[in-house]
């Protein structure tokens, strides 16, 4: 729905489509494997380091706790972007089946991405 009303231009969006890489629309499904493996490596390695810092008493120093905190923020940053991208690449649906609007979903994703970037930068 779009149009002029009360002197302002109103337009609403109903879907958001992640196009991927131009010229590779037919090979979108093949892009899932590299991005999924990258996501799993990020999750596994960060969780391994966080677990090591938490379980070893000798590593409970401020430097190692800061590293564990930054790795937890790294997991949050990866989880903000990659699952929606993997869903979009693996199916032909333009958005994940959530109850939120496309604009709300985009706003929430942008907020969390900017929060993770700002928090990791400010902690350093």
UniProtKB/TrEMBL annotation:
<protein>
    <submittedName>
        <fullName>Olfactory receptor</fullName>
    </submittedName>
</protein>
<keyword id="KW-0812">Transmembrane</keyword>
<feature type="transmembrane region" description="Helical">
    <location>
        <begin position="63"/>
        <end position="89"/>
    </location>
</feature>
<keyword id="KW-0472">Membrane</keyword>
<keyword id="KW-0297">G-protein coupled receptor</keyword>
<keyword id="KW-1133">Transmembrane helix</keyword>
<keyword id="KW-0807">Transducer</keyword>
<dbReference type="Pfam" id="PF13853">
    <property type="entry name" value="7tm_4"/>
</dbReference>
<dbReference type="InterPro" id="IPR000725">
    <property type="entry name" value="Olfact_rcpt"/>
</dbReference>
<dbReference type="InterPro" id="IPR050402">
    <property type="entry name" value="OR51/52/56-like"/>
</dbReference>
<keyword id="KW-0552">Olfaction</keyword>
<keyword id="KW-0675">Receptor</keyword>
<feature type="transmembrane region" description="Helical">
    <location>
        <begin position="29"/>
        <end position="51"/>
    </location>
</feature>
<keyword id="KW-0716">Sensory transduction</keyword>
